[in-house]
Design brief:
By secondary structure, the chain is mainly β. The protein contains no helices and eleven strands. It has strands at residues 3-6, 9-12, 20-23, 32-38, 45-51, 56-58, 66-71, 76-81, 90-98, 102-105, 109-114. Strands 2, 4, 5, 6, 9, 10 and 11 form a seven-stranded mixed β-sheet that branches. A four-stranded antiparallel β-sheet has the order 1-3-8-7, with no helix packed on it. It is globular. The chain starts with a strand and ends with a strand.
Amino acid sequence: VQLQASGGGLVQAGGSLRPSCAASRNILSFNTMGWYRQAPGKQRELVATITNRAFTNYADSVKGRFGISRDTAKNTVYLQMNSLKPEDTAVYYCQAYAVGLGDLWGQGTEVTVSS
């Protein structure tokens, strides 16, 4: 089982990006999928998650600016990031969890927000 993240990049403050995470199997087979990020010199932190029942959860720092969504036909989860700030600069990682599989991580996609 693999997760393939893409869609990071360089953007000015106030701009938007929409990274995507494509899974190699039916994403509804995962209990949850999510995005985490790790800024230089900092620990990895949760950004947003979505359950297989489509319940979502967000870090306080991104509420109102970021939105997690999915396309089950494409087995892909997206992270719409709006009103980006320099402090959003980080490597963003896609994650999935399933009972019996545990945590699965994709490779990171780098997001850089310039001021």
